[in-house]
Sequence to fold (438 residues):
Amino acid sequence: MSVALQGQPLVEVKNLRHLYGKPSDGELLVLDQVNLALGENEIVGLLGRSGSGKSTLLRSIAGLITPTGGEIDFAKNPDGSGPVAVSMVFQSFALFPWLTVQQNVELGLEAKHVPAETRRKRALAAIDLIGLDGFENAYPKELSGGMRQRVGLARALVVDPDILLMDEPFSALDVLTAETLRTDLLDLWCEGRMQIRSILIVTHNIEEAVLMCDRILVFSSNPGRIISEVRVDLPQPRNRQDPRFRILVDDIYTRMTQRTAGDEARRSDGLFPGVGIGMLLPEISTNALAGLMEAVAAEPFGGKADLPELAAALHYEADELFGVAETLQLMRFAEVEGGDIRLSAAARRYVEADTDARKQLFAQHLLAYVPLAAYIRRELDNDADHELPAARIREELEEMMSPGYAEQTIRAVVAWARYAEAFAYDEGAGLFTLENPS
Ligand code: ADP
Ligand code: MG
Fold:
């Protein structure tokens, strides 16, 4: 499966394994048997769904967390100055609001006890390189999102890392800003203007990966593991309309929807992968779910569609569509496999039904196949006042996922339950109730 590297790897991850939580309250296996190597002069993409453990892997390589098991080996510098250096760019920029651009960039050097004058020179050079000349004394809040991420990039570059780790660096930016920043970064890389020897970029965006990377590692969920590797041999700059580009995107789509043996084993238990009260739910609107069922049911698809074709027809970004399709699969309105989506009989009934019948059908599937929805409903039914504090659910979820994901999961289940009239949520009081439902 693995593509041979040229020469010695700069970093090698071997059999990495990571668990969150304590054995007493149930552990979550996030990474298992992860193996990868970064070679000289390449951009490698790590492509996986939200919650698949990509950030955990990157943080392990950056030394920000200690993985439960496995090894991470760094090559030694030829000049004997120790192992290769690693630096990270975060999705959230992670700037200090009370420091100026220049102070934010210098921060990484202060920790290394670099003298003030050298610090200043190197920071200004990094700021200049990254296109922030003239903004040295600005504060983060005065900058647009794109400029803030440039600061994030300058701060990572100023320490002269050999390896740059990027965790979804463009996903918090609007589409145009993200594209500009990607292009600028690729230009700097192709022209050799950064001293970096290798980049590992995490993304959940297939096109971004094909646009930027020499190699793409496809990451599975539950637990995160590399399931395949794709080499992108197109010259830079790449063109999204190039047929070879489209073929690669389709191919990766197919790989991402392939079921693993583990999935099959879980399915034979009557469960879908990762299902449980602690399953991370995506925020997909019921409009998007209904819209996709209608589109696949209609001509020319007639109940079954090729996902990339469907994405093009509906003007969806590939990855957005993927989230909607997977949610339909979770609720058994569709099967997603080998790059295709096929509607279930229930979905065809849904499409034919009127508004009330649709809501009822959706409620049945929500309560049958989304364990968290069923759990909340059961608690409400059993409570004398038919009330349930949201804080309790949040706490339970936070045992199994990060606070951000817990919040997202609650928002998702609330939106679906509201539509289905399965239960209500009083935001002000922070209570789930049975207000609207009969
Ligand atoms: P990704 O970056 O692919 O979205 P993450 O590595 O952030 O995934 O998270 C993987 C899984 O681990 C998710 O289910 C997430 O909820 C969980 N997780 C992440 N950080 C923590 C943490 N500090 N404590 C407990 N669970 C966590
Ligand atoms: Mg992440």
Observations:
- Confidence is low (pLDDT under 50) at residues 264-275.
- The pocket of adenosine-5'-diphosphate (ligand 1) is lined by residues 20-21, 28, 30, 48, 50-56, 280, 401-402, 405 (CB under 6 Å).
- The longest strand covers residues 28-38.
- Residues 403-420 form the longest helix (18 residues).
